[in-house]
Amino acid sequence: KFTALHAALVTGGTVLYVPRNVVIEQPLHGVTAVGGGKADFAHTLIIAEENTQVTYVDDLISQDGDGAFHSGVVEIVAKSSAVVRYMHNQDWNTSTWHFSTQQAQMLRDAQLTWIISSWGSRLSKINLEMQLRERGGHGELLGLYFPSGRQHIDHHTFQNHIADHCTSDLLFKGALRDRSRSVYAGGIKVWRNAQKTDAYQKNNNLVLDRRARADSIPGLEIEADDVRCTHGATVSKIEPEYLFYLMARSLTRFQAEQLIVTGFFEEVLNRVPVEGVRRKLEQV
């Protein structure tokens, strides 16, 4: 329904087209800013032709303290031997409703690094689908989220292995405090002809408050018989022994928690390819 609403009311956005054999070394940066109780239906379309390289950073920010509504769509087409890095940084204020549908199509030997960070919004519902349509494709899907207050952040990912000899690697990490809630639902599907698939899916959650709640639902659907597919999910609290160890070395409880959370996210942050984005996420 939200995608149909977007199609009916699309307000603009970004089209990035990279011609064949073009390498763009510097990252490109786009900003969507909404406020004042308005609705936004921005669309991002990235088409990378054969043998290209491009990095695009998509920032979503609020203009003021008023709430807003965003229903966006992101489409990525990575053609043969293209290398695409796409970063989607959602930092709305906590009165904004956020819905996003994102899909990537990968052709022969394409490589995609896809990073989602979700810090803001009152409620976020994000659907991500990676389609590996031709052999040799490799997709990396990384996610960070840190809700607080009464925020609700919901990610639904789908690694769709249609062709053979493709790989995908997913890592989503979230920390929660106060009365916030996160939901992660992930699926890997391997079609009958997608032999030699290698797919991985991992979701870790760190609950910092007894009132917070994290739900994690990974899943596999495999129709081929020569594959390697694994998945895992964890929801845990900070061990009291860890806090005691750090506080015994003159850190306050807040500083000790902050250090543990920073270390928890480091596994994802170290894989962010743009240094400026990595520093910004560390600060947030």
Topology:
Elements: H1 2-9, E1 12-18, E2 28-34, E3 39-40, E4 42-48, E5 53-62, E6 69-78, E7 83-91, E8 97-106, E9 111-118, E10 123-132, E11 138-145, E12 152-161, E13 167-176, E14 181-190, E15 198-207, E16 213-222, E17 228-237, H2 240-247, H3 253-269, H4 275-283
Parallel strand pairs: 1-4, 2-5, 3-6, 4-6, 5-7, 6-8, 7-9, 8-10, 9-11, 10-12, 11-13, 12-14, 13-15, 14-16, 15-17
Spell the H/E element sequence. Answer: HEEEEEEEEEEEEEEEEEHHH
**Mean pLDDT level:** 93
Task: Using the alpha-carbon principal axes, give the shape.
Answer: globular
Radius of gyration: 19 Å
Share of helix among residues?
10-25%
Short description, anyone?
With 284 residues, the chain is mainly β. It is built from 4 helices and 17 strands.
Descriptive report:
The chain is mainly beta and about 280 residues long. The protein has 4 helices and 17 strands. The protein is globular. The mean pLDDT is about 95.
List descriptors.
284 residues; mainly beta; 52% strand
